[in-house]
Amino acid sequence: MALYGARKGYNAGLSIGEVNLSRGFHVMAGPCSVESEEQVHRTAEHLAGRGVRILRGGAFKPRTSPYSFQGLGEPGLKLLSDAAARMGMLTVSEVMDVETLPLVAGYIDILQVGARNMQNYSLLKALAKQSKPVLLKRGMAATIEEFLLAAEYVLQGNERVILCERGVRSFDPLTRNMLDLSGVALLREMSHLPVIVDLSHSTGRTDIIAPLARACVALGAEGMMVEVHPEPAAALCDGVQALSFDDASRLLADITPWVALRAKLQADRFPLSLPKRNATAG
Amino acid sequence: MALYGARKGYNAGLSIGEVNLSRGFHVMAGPCSVESEEQVHRTAEHLAGRGVRILRGGAFKPRTSPYSFQGLGEPGLKLLSDAAARMGMLTVSEVMDVETLPLVAGYIDILQVGARNMQNYSLLKALAKQSKPVLLKRGMAATIEEFLLAAEYVLQGNERVILCERGVRSFDPLTRNMLDLSGVALLREMSHLPVIVDLSHSTGRTDIIAPLARACVALGAEGMMVEVHPEPAAALCDGVQALSFDDASRLLADITPWVALRAKLQADRFPLSLPKRNATAG
Amino acid sequence: MALYGARKGYNAGLSIGEVNLSRGFHVMAGPCSVESEEQVHRTAEHLAGRGVRILRGGAFKPRTSPYSFQGLGEPGLKLLSDAAARMGMLTVSEVMDVETLPLVAGYIDILQVGARNMQNYSLLKALAKQSKPVLLKRGMAATIEEFLLAAEYVLQGNERVILCERGVRSFDPLTRNMLDLSGVALLREMSHLPVIVDLSHSTGRTDIIAPLARACVALGAEGMMVEVHPEPAAALCDGVQALSFDDASRLLADITPWVALRAKLQADRFPLSLPKRNATAG
Amino acid sequence: MALYGARKGYNAGLSIGEVNLSRGFHVMAGPCSVESEEQVHRTAEHLAGRGVRILRGGAFKPRTSPYSFQGLGEPGLKLLSDAAARMGMLTVSEVMDVETLPLVAGYIDILQVGARNMQNYSLLKALAKQSKPVLLKRGMAATIEEFLLAAEYVLQGNERVILCERGVRSFDPLTRNMLDLSGVALLREMSHLPVIVDLSHSTGRTDIIAPLARACVALGAEGMMVEVHPEPAAALCDGVQALSFDDASRLLADITPWVALRAKLQADRFPLSLPKRNATAG
Prior knowledge:
The first copy, chain A, is an alpha/beta fold. Chain A has one domain: TIM Barrel (Alpha-Beta Barrel).
């Protein structure tokens, strides 16, 4: 476990443009899939107006079934990139393979590796050889150690890695996955990489996002990712977990005093780290 | 699922003595097992001095192996009760079966049902027929619905039920169990019963308790349970997850500004609840 | 782990009446719940006619919801016992608590402890103090070691323990639980207790029971438990996983040549045990 | 779910060279990693002498840590291919990415997709566009439906797909993964693709392989995969789960009468399929 320890400090100041991901609480928001110019422009405008600086949206979609909507491809990247540029936002979008990596990297600021590809080592090695920052999602049933070792593949050549917890497989059908916030706390103890929490894919529902978002702020996560769609009921992908514009506005207002408290404490003594006890007692 | 819905409101004011568990953030702390008069008195004194009002400690211990320490039994209950009385604290301790229920209820204020007994229906039915409040721990791999249905057994006759999330079985060996904070958010959406989070049994380690405690506050949980021991390395049970007195003091100081923020917001608009979207879109 | 090792040999000849559970392949079959005299008598008659010697049926039912059918109680025990006696069969039925243990033991030959009670130590200790054989079901998410340690509680005073694998919690909704046949192989390596596989509660469906029953025979399990009902669609409990009389007849015919092969090999060299390799290599 | 149903029949006669994978019980065996000419030639010779017709061995190894042995690459493919050719065996080896697919396909008969790549859709689509048969391993925590949908990606263009169960993530540390034999039974109900069981990666230990191999035969699986190494303690990869030559010989002898029984029954009425009951009863 000395591996990631040795890397500590590397990313203490992971900055992308004017955004320093290692400080403060960052919101990455936008639709699951880029569907149309109007959809993505309206979303970008709404979010930018409420302080969101990173726009998410899928153009290449890994789908469980070959018969599901697979994304717009390059036109989707262009729409996302244009919408973000107009609002002065950064973009994050998924790269699915080595072949399309140059294409995606030509449009997008932060390259996302999806949960299904967390151990796609060929892709990780290719991402180590380029300079765009990488947002690595935790695999569906990856341990924290496996997650950090996957990051290590990218860190071989590219220090700008962002970890993203998105829930793990569980037995409870009420949520899409089981959000592992103790895993987030462990990632922050074991590594200095920024940690983002994807609240939409983990919970798969909208009604418990607000309390979990506040938990992420208090926990010390560097940010959260949420899906926002102008008309969730009409979304081509995962509409059941997308926030409406109104939901998103209320969510962002809800976390504001918590983010402010954290900023105030952070200058001082946040976060507290208690010592780990060794396994000597019964 | 209308069942628990129908119960909503019942416990809006679950009070035990002067402690209203439905308001504010409550800390239940103390040793895993009651071991000696000195141990439990010193612990009670330390915790009471930092504002903790509920003292925990096991006297009847359900142990995986028949060869492990099984607890002091009645003398342990008496030690716990005396120490709490001296400090003006309430007590919480586990009741393992119908036979010893009257004995435990004779000493203890809040009767805990352990994870192994969450579906011990004979015990739940007996608890429904007496008046002491019941702290029901979630089973090792119980769904949220099963957890609420187990509570329903007690609610048949006793409205004073407190739910306790304590982590569920998972594949990651870094934590003893996987803490399910989205489950806590669900419990708070689906029921009005107070929800307490056991951070010691869920994580099984001390170094990530502080961030998770802050998360519990921000999330809206009614409280947390943590194990505290004067000398963790010498504990007869689960010492590796026990906080020292110094750890406990720092933890309690760490959450203070977060509890204060919540109290300030609570008068006003806390917590935010976003609407649930129905599963109509792709 | 020396614990159960030390017990090896104890049950090498676990016999109940004329049935030696440590030899051959035993079928325990019958309805989930005893519902009526006609139901249980018809079932017993059908099964006895096809060589089944152990009749199962629930009279005290542990149900997730307090609003589900809870079983007939003592009249159910009597019906089961009478039906078995008429056919010269043994009975197995669940005992849920210490209070009703004498009642159940007064009617039933093999006392079943359900998955929810695997770590109900008060019940296990009471079962150690009486002489009826105990069929202990594996807990919903119990490790093999925890399962054996639970058995150890009964073995403190009662050597006649039968282990029953019934699947564990998993993420796949296609089966009710995930049947763990490698766990069965481990139980047979680590202990000499007979191991029975409950195919109905593990799979929760009828269409894959035949191949899994053959697997149990070949694996070396001492037997299987299946639910059989004269009219599955009308069952008061778990009808979806119950075999009809015709299904049961075909299942029993299907395993016959496999049981015969095993009997032939068993006299000779069955089962093969390969050495365990220690964790020394990369 | 009609998807795979529609495909039924396609692979009823999946043949590779003279080996018909849809009939009989096939053993795929060999080292985890190809390490040297001597290692792989000796292994091939030993196995071929006992009737094994498919030689496995890794040349491109997906490893959790970037610091672990990553395989010999092309020289490994050549060694494996030469050893198999000398013994008249087929080969199976992992292909990790689209880039090296032509290279691997140039040497190997059956292209294996590892568990980590089960949802690497770019790779699956590339495999659909070539004609070599594909052995698709189940993802670490994939449901049976997700597994079949992943196969569907390959089936879009290549009908020769073999499914391989290799255990899923679980909470029990005694085995590396939890072998899901009810999943194998489901795969055989829901699809006509041949199903192979990897006993080495699922269990991660040697001592329970024999009973599970017999279970696979009786269940109806089309074959099993096991790791065999001339000197397990010196293996560069996963030595703890590798069978020695002697172990392998004994294992193959052990399953022989079971395979013979199955062949005898298969001409006749094997396997039995009972009807599925619909979820109408309580």
